[in-house]
Specification:
It comes from Archangium lansingense. This protein is mainly β and about 550 residues long. It contains six helices and 22 strands.
Length: about 550
Amino acid sequence: MRSACIALGLALGLATSGSASAQDARFDVQAFRPLGAAQDLVVVGQSRPISHLSVSGGAFLNFALDPLMLVAAGTNSKALSVVGNRLQLDVMASVGLLDWFELGVDMPLVLAQAGDNLEAIGTEGFVQSFTPGDLRLTGKVAIPGLRRTPEGSGLGGALTFGMGLPTGLQEAFASDGETTWTPGLLLDYRFESGILLALNAGLWLRPEREFAGVQWGNSATFGLGAEVPIIRGWGVTAVGMLSGSTPLDKRPEDLLQIPAELLVGLRWYSGLGLTFTVGGGGGCGCSLTAPTMRLFTSIIWVPSITKEYEAIARFKEPPEPPPPPPPPVDPDGDSVIGEGDRCPTAAGPVENGGCPDTDEDRDAVVDRLDRCPASPAGPRGREGCPLARIEGNKIIILDQVHFATDQDVILPESFPILEEVADELLKHLEIQRVLVEAHTDARANDAYNYDLSRRRAASVMNFLLDSGIAVERLCSAGLGRSRPLAANDSESNMALNRRVEFTILPPSAGALTSPCPTDPAAEQALPPVKSTKGRKQAPEYNKSAAETR
């Protein structure tokens, strides 16, 4: 990349002593500020603090070409290499607390640096070669709700803080000469595949300086980073990061300074708790402190006795695939396999969960399809239900008893139902008395409906008498429209209300048979019943006529 630079209007050899003193406010030119945790992205942090009481330690070595170079005004010609090259070592250590906090320390040492004679900027001689830098203390705390586990994936977030102590030599461009502060925010996202994307933002609060006519001080910092596994089984990943800063204040005549660097590298998580990283890149833009080229390498050691070592080992190992499902087992050969077979040792249809079908009432309709599993359907039944069956105090019939329109004449299609009602009474002689109830819909007046229902109930009772049921076991009542099952607002609802019911009456104490209840309103409204005795032999009528009343 092209060298980062600034056109300063510098005329070599023409600097006066007054201008030299004004330009002699030196500052720390080191923009490469590495982070010490094993899984941080060199100069871009990741949000997860290292595990509780885990420690890491190591060193970063980096070489920068032309980190501080001046050019003549109006040209791209180098006028002066203030710091032409720098070789710096950062010795670092970090410790995790409670899985929420991380504390670190970084001691930078400028091992060697060189440049041109600085007489042009007011100081005879060259920049000092070896010098300590400003000691840095760092901290990180996870944001509640965004704390990611060591081996976890998903979104993470943390707040950071840093303090720089003026332990370096300002004259050698290795210190700001005062305490500096670096608060910040980290956000990142780790995918299930191990890919990590990170975003850093913060402030670098440092003293105001003016150097070579350029104001330099507080700045906003930024960083974007990514780590992508290449050969995960070997622990090899690729890392890339873009980091930089921009001053918060500048004079109107000053050019905007955005010293930024783009770096890429390879990383190896070894099985010994050692993490090696090597890479390089360079500065972009035209600004102070952005070098033409930077090369770096690092080694971070995590002792094997700590949880952090285990976390790195889990990251290195690819996630174990789920075990293959067991082969299908079908010991009973009914094609229902595994947990879906509720009866694995007995064959049965899929519809019954692999269990054999049962038929409690032995009517050849299996129980899962039998609407009346406790009552055999008989030869004329449907869906496993007989045409008539006893349930509680009722004789339930499978279909309505149909009559000729506005008459008490029973239609032949209802004969089988009444025959089965008779058969039930003949089989159950313990039933002493049954009330035959007839009901109508709401059309016509009460007197008409009571009369029609009473005649129909009498017709059904007479049918049962002719079928061999003793007269003392039967009684009838017409209840008209007084007890509807549904609102009389549609043909289907009115058809439900036109019905015949058979109610088993309880025995009366001290009497052979229980009395037959009557409806007082019906008794008052109607004359005595004239029996029409509906018989099995139907009278003459139009059989195709549908019952509408």
